[in-house]
Amino acid sequence: MAEASIEFKGSSFTLSVLHLKTSTLSDFRDDLKKKVAQAPDFFYLVPIVVDIERVDSSIDYQAVKLLVEEFKFTFVGFTGNVPKAQRKLIRALGFSFVNSANSAVSRTKKVQASTKAVKADEEIVAKVKQTQIIPQVSLFTDKIHRGQIRSGQQIYAKDQNLVIIGSVSAGAEVIADGNIHVYGSLRGRAIAGAKGHHQAQIYCQNLEAELVSINGNYWLSESMEQHWNSPAYIHLSDTELVSSKLI
Amino acid sequence: MARIIVVTSGKGGVGKTTSSAAIGIGLALKGHKVVLIDFDIGLRNLDLIMGCERRVVYDFVNVINGEATLNQALIKDKRVSSLSILPASQTRDKDALNKENVGKVLDDLAKRFDYIICDSPAGIEAGAMMALYYADEAIVTTNPEVSSVRDSDRILGMLASRSRRAELGLEPIKEHLLLTRYSPKRVEEGEMLSVEDVEDILAIPLLGVIPESQAVLKASNAGEPVILDTESDAGKAYQDVIDRLLGETVEFRFLVAEKKGILSRLFGG
Ligand SMILES: Nc1ncnc2c1ncn2[C@@H]1O[C@H](COP(=O)(O)OP(=O)(O)OP(=O)(O)O)[C@@H](O)[C@H]1O
Ligand SMILES: [Mg+2]
Questions:
Q1: How many helices (H) and strands (E) are present in chain A, helices listed first?
Q2: How remote is the CA of residue B18 from the centroid of ligand 1, in Å?
Q3: How far apart are CA B46 and CA A171, in angstroms?
Q4: What is the fold of A16-113?
Q5: Domain boundaries in chain A?
Q6: Separation of CA A27 from chain center
Q7: Per-residue pLDDT reduced to its tens digit, A40-70
């Protein structure tokens, strides 16, 4: 067998951390602007991690990232000693969460650090493998909806993926030309790849859907028995819908 | 600023009018100036539950049409002087109300009262939309069964999209979940949804759980809102609702089935 073309190894770098102290983004922007104005060259393309420990967990993470990038930093991810659920949410939104070596969280876990690192590597490799099997749709941008989609409501992400931070009620309908992510329960109908996109997928934290459909192939509740009431994702293999355990 | 609170549900017969009456009188007993408005045009129910049906001369529609002044139409409660009732008309049809005129009446009432409680008709048609349009807060009244929960979910969607606050992009209506006719025994037997099930589906803060109670029917027949029956379980549960509405943290009661002791079983408790 030929030698692998890539190899994963751990390494430490020093990154600048920006501590966010206000949830008011306009204030944040003003202060950042002042700071950068003092030494624009110094900050240019500097990799930066944003510490969100001291601000409200409901801040608009995407807006924070865009703000940082607006001032020509290279945004790496978020950090801070925050609850697990919040870290999960941040990851779910598509951002990295970086654990700092001297944060309270990792201090308590230091002993396990070396074994962890190895494990993380394995995880990355596993992920890479996985993505080869199931092609991801990354051509689309995301339409993000915060809150429940109630019975009788319908939401359509035209030429986009649809991300719902909340549940989709029975009697509600979510439609996307790309993927659908539900960070909550999917109890209504979800139609992904609506314009005919074979690779589209549906992800949810709790599957109780009335109907799921990808590129015109659909399932009613009765076909979802296998992952009913658990986190699942659904994709197409040829013209068959397949559901898999999400975590 | 007056707080405009709509008591709504989607599904009919879940306990909106019972709850409106109890909450209205409960807030008034705490010294607040309260007006109860019956939006169920054509049915007239609130005045019966409040026991003032024989004192109705003018109604909400008369005021809307300029046929009577608010002073003429408002009925002062005989038990609590800080409470007034604006009854619905039994003779008019449902389309008698329009947004603009309802808005004017509410503006007038807001100058005189601390709380305006709107008892909504069932359904999701014009009447129910009118009752919720101007609301600052909504008490979503729900029975622990699937169809009622589904309708409440539907109404929550309307609150978020069809209200004045939604149309003007103001702070959203504050939503409260009121579970009524709750029977812990039937929940345990798997015949009804549990508090947790309903909270999980609707995902809004719980304001109260009112047990299924004989006292409610008795109270309705007597025209004495059940909250005045301070010995009854439903009366106590509504009292807790008032305290929570006024910002207190009160533990939830009547959530588990009472285990009948040998004595009460012998003597019938
Ligand atoms: N906690 C309770 N225990 C027992 N019976 C109750 C309870 N709450 C309400 N009821 C009964 O349910 C019936 C409907 O109550 P109510 O009129 O308050 O509902 P509603 O939602 O206003 O109805 P509508 O949609 O017709 O306006 C009445 O007979 C009432 O006595
Ligand atoms: Mg009623």
A1: 6, 14
A2: 6
A3: 31
A4: Alpha-Beta Plaits (3.30.70)
A5: 16-113, 141-245
A6: 26
A7: 777 788 888 999 888 888 888 888 898 888 8
Token code pair at residue B251: 């533990």
Tokens, residue A180:
């659908």
Asked whether the beta carbons of residue A150 and residue B201 sit closer than 8 angstroms, the reply is no
The residue among B1, B23, B5 whose CA lies nearest residue B139 is: B5
Token duo for residue A78: 């978020």
The rounded distance, in Å, linking the Cα atoms of B257 and B185 is 5
Q: How far, in whole angstroms, is CA A211 from its chain's centroid?
A: 24
Instruction: Say yes or no: CB of residue B213 within 6 Å of ligand 1.
Output: yes
Do A16-113 and A141-245 share a fold? no
Residue contact A152–B160, C-beta within 8 A = no
B9 lines ligand 1 (CB under 6 A): yes
B11 lines ligand 1 (CB under 6 A): no
Q: Which residue is associated with the tokens 């501590």? A: A19
- Chain A / chain B CB contacts < 8 angstroms: 34
List Cβ neighbours of B66 (8 Å cut-off, separation of 6 or more). Answer: none
pLDDT tens digits, B28-46: 999 999 999 999 988 879 9
CA-based R_g, chain B, Å: 18
Q: Read off φ and ψ for residue B87, nearest 5 degrees.
A: -75, 160
Cα distances from B40 to residues A88, A187, B17, B25, B144, in angstroms, run 46, 32, 9, 19, 23
Which long-range CB contacts under 8 A does A161-165 form with residues at least 24 apart?
A161/A137, A162/A192, A163/A93, A165/A89, A165/A92, A165/A93
From the CA of A54, how far away is ligand 2's center (Å)? 47
* pLDDT at residue A132, rounded to an integer: 37
Start-to-end CA distance of chain B, whole Å, equals: 46
* ipTM at complex level: 0.80
Separation of alpha carbons A109 and B46, rounded Å: 62
Which one of A147, A151, A167 has the shortest CB-CB distance to B154? A151
Q: Can you read off the two tokens belonging to residue A171?
A: 């009697």
pLDDT of residue A125 exceeding 70, the answer is: no
Residue B82 Cβ inside 6 Å of ligand 1? The answer reads no
Return the axis-axis angle of helices B126-133 and B146-161, rounded to nearest 10°: 60
Taking the domain A141-245, which CATH number applies?
A: 2.160.20.70
Q: Which helix (H) or strand (E) holds B38?
A: strand B34-38
Please state, in angstroms and rounded to a whole number, the distance separating the CA atoms of residues B238 and B215: 12
Neighbours of A45 (CB within 10 A): 8
What spacing in Å lies between the alpha carbon of B204 and ligand 2's midpoint? Answer: 22
Q: Strand pairing of A217-220 and B34-38?
A: unpaired
